[in-house]
Write a structure and sequence with these properties.
single chain
């Protein structure tokens, strides 16, 4: 009798053999990796993703999967230099405007469906702690689902664009854009998404002249090492 394979669960997914682009690493090894928390006080923009995919975890950089529109959009909108790629994610901290990166869930998965509700709840609370500590000018959620989870709304009740939500004690403005996956049929190419980044730049300019913007925070160090920031990542 052939061996019956049990169904995968969110706690125990199938581990498959990976292709050559993963350099011979096993899926189990890659799933154990996390991305560094690239954040510092008073960033101009903090991009919030959902969680690392396999290829981004393998490369150790945000939005590394080939075809993702994220980095081409950053380049075309002139938020980063023309030569920037995912390998330059840490360099974005030193740009003007400065750009940081984090995810609402740090665990790497093959698919978002593997994430558990309690992981989103825990990640949302940790993100609130980060925002109160680092106070970025504009917090950009790369996907409506992430913002919906963060504020406890249903996905159908969330729209892209500037959000009216404010986090008490935090001066950040919140913005949601459509996720940058190339599979997103509503925005099939880079050019169709550029308006999101233009709106983000306008929010930065607005924040810079806001009388409510606080004095620079100097006490909180940058977070660059995921192994040292698991308590808030």
């Amino acid at each position: 009798m052939p061996k019956v394979r049990s169904k995968p669960t969110k706690n125990k997914p199938y581990l498959q053999k990976l292709g050559p682009i993963f350099g011979g690493c096993s899926e189990e090894e890659i799933r154990s990796r996390t991305l560094p928390q690239l954040i510092k006080p008073n960033l101009s923009i903090l991009f919030v993703g959902i969680n690392p995919g396999l290829y981004s975890a393998y490369k150790g950089h945000y939005y590394s999967k080939k075809g993702n529109h994220f980095w081409p959009c950053l380049v075309q909108s002139k938020l980063v230099p023309a030569h920037f790629t995912p390998d330059n994610d840490q360099d974005c901290l030193g740009l003007e405007p400065s750009i940081g990166f984090t995810d609402i869930v740090s665990r790497c998965t093959r698919a978002q469906s593997e994430l558990r509700d309690e992981e989103f709840d825990e990640g949302a609370e940790k993100l609130r702690v980060k925002l109160l500590k680092y106070n970025p000018m504009v917090v950009v959620f790369n996907g409506k689902q992430i913002f919906a989870r963060f504020v406890g709304k249903k996905l159908k009740d969330v729209s892209c664009g500037r959000q009216s939500y404010r986090l008490p004690g935090c001066f950040s403005v919140f913005y949601t854009m459509s996720n940058t996956s190339p599979l997103n049929a509503h925005y099939p190419n880079v050019q169709s998404r550029i308006f999101f980044y233009d709106e983000i730049k306008a929010l930065i300019a607005e924040q810079k002249v806001s009388p409510y913007w606080p004095v620079q925070v100097k006490s909180a160090p940058s977070e660059l090492n995921s192994e040292k920031t698991d308590d808030v990542s």
